[in-house]
Amino acid sequence: xxxxxxxxxxxxxxxxxxxxxxxxxxxxxxxxYWYRQSLGQGLEFLIYFQGNSAPDKSGxxxxxxxxxxxxxxxxxxxxxxxxxxxxxVYLCASSLGDLAGAYNEQFFGPGTRLTVL
Amino acid sequence: TQLLEQSPQFxxxxxxxxxxxxxxxxxxxxxxQWYRQEPGEGPVxxxxxxxxxxxxxxxxxxFQFGDARKDSSLHITAAQPGDTGLYLCAGAPDSNYQLIWxxxxxxxxxx
Lengths: 117, 111
What we know:
Order of helices and strands of chain B: EEEEEEEEEEE
Shape of chain B: globular
Helix content of chain B: under 10%
Structural class of chain B: mainly beta
Structural class of chain A: mainly beta
Oligomer: heterodimer
Distance between the termini of chain A: 37 Å
Helix content of chain A: under 10%
Mean pLDDT of chain B: 93
Shape of chain A: globular
Low-confidence stretches of chain B: none
């Protein structure tokens, strides 16, 4: 079956421009996560969607970052007025969420590499 | 705030050597997962440990969950160049579906 897909795989933009990153989770997964990863580093949590509940936005670094998840499936992460420090790999993951119990494996997409010039 | 401290941050060893990566916390987790990430890809789950004291083996990789479910280790025997990657531990708090992530261990195995 299809895994988590993300697009674009690479995005180069100029400082001050807005960007949209897309994530298509695994069908049936109720939970969706966005992370940011700097080169060779660990994962920085950004935002978490679980079913129809209000998203947990506690990881968003500034109000320039926003995300939405339409119809409980596809999600878009938007970064407005991009800055050079936004350059990173943005990873999306999905999981069974509240169906998984203790075995809440997250399935990751390949990421979008964002470069802000 | 729950934290998961992972060590070492970076490890470069010769093929055939053994190594251990540690994940420690002062908090209890209902389960703990280990992921491996290769360049240009997202992390992929290696194992989930749930029971205190549990030991799981995956070929040359041995994973252990501490008795108190606060810490975990990953031991690799006779490391191979194919083991090269970023290893991440992630703990699940009791009833939360989010994961608390360690900072990762970058492992390089030289032929």
